TrEMBL record:
Domain (FAD dependent oxidoreductase) ranges: 19-405
InterPro entries linked: FAD-dep_OxRdtase, FAD/NAD-bd_sf
Region (Disordered): 243-270
Keyword tags: Oxidoreductase
Listed name of the protein: FAD-binding oxidoreductase
Gene3D superfamilies assigned: D-Amino Acid Oxidase, subunit A, domain 2, FAD/NAD(P)-binding domain
Ranges of Low complexity composition bias in the record: 249-267
Species of the source: Myceligenerans salitolerans
Amino acid sequence: MPIPSVRRSRQGALPRTADVVVAGGGAVGAAVAYQLADAGASVLLAEAFTLPDGADPVHFSAAAQRAAPPAPITRRDDGGHAPAAGRSIEALDLRSAELYASLPARSGAGVGYGASTRASLHLLPDDDTVAAYTNAVARQARRGLDSMMIRAQDAATLNPYVAAWQYAGAALIAPERWHAPGAAAADLLAAASDRGAVLREHCMVQGIERSGGTVSAAWTEHGKVRTGAVVLCAGSHSARLAASDLSSGPAPVDTGPAGTPTPAPADDLGDRERLRLPLVARRRALGFTLPLVPRPGQVPATLDVGSTFWFANAEPDRVMLGVERPDRPLEAGHEPRLVPLLRRAAAHCAPALGEAPLAPGWLGTRTETPDGLPLLGAHGSGLLYATGFDGAAARVAPAVGEVVRDFLEQHEPDIDVSPLGVERFWR
């Protein structure tokens, strides 16, 4: 059950002004809010849905919707910008591990972000996929990563749920820290609140108001907040916010059904003001088993590359499972009809999970960019963006918060994140 005092503290009137408005309350948005508040800024974090409070181990937060096993084999490792971007992400990951370790002492909130070190298991449907993975794993080995190709039978030994006869082979991907994203976000939010950030849930940021080409306010579904900076951590919704340009002044030219100004099309903006974020939302079904008896053993986070079905341990006695691109265009939210979809996906890969008792499913989204890499940077208009991290969000969130803080303070970040800037698409 939600903690009543926490819930009340995350609802209520909005501040009239804030130094920074953070749009999105997943792990990255929470870390950004914490780092900025820790630096002395007045911060409003506005989340469209419910913020995690740490009371429910199976919290369907925006972060949990994007949970997935790590997939360190990038789509582009062909001499383009992916190797440099990979180094940036690795540096963010290492720095985040240091910050997670120091967070309890700095914030007094305590961190139960559920980090562990584990390999991930990728199940390969055919010989062509095996060949592609063999090449990718060889490239990883040259970079010192401890990935390896294994037989399908070996995969079943590592993960007894796996139906080995369905696969041509498998890959065991190098161990890395894996975080429960809902728990990470909950603790980072507690740290942000401890430093004075204002947290508001069910409060979607719906558009950006500009004056002279720079940010002057953010409009939410509960009203307007004057600010000079907005950080976009809201998944694919970040693209719509980046393109919005509301009329300044007390009388907006157009209003939506809730009385909130309607964003103008991106074409109404000049070249200097326009920030184009190439983000696409992919649908993802997510579910959990009910508590299993006996408890499931620890298994690698496992991905069926052919079907996109994946599953992983969900402590203490559940299994989290999901599949990309569900076959029904359902609205986001708890959806009992997703249970049969998850069962069908599990039946091919892990038949025992297909027969396990499941809680009602959740339909969320995964935010993609054209090259599969995240977006992190700053725009001269007062907009900053930190989105598209997907399954890596919880691992890198604290360091991303530091980078955004440095951008706002006009300092050069210690980590070179220029390969993650949106400029890579428009050069």
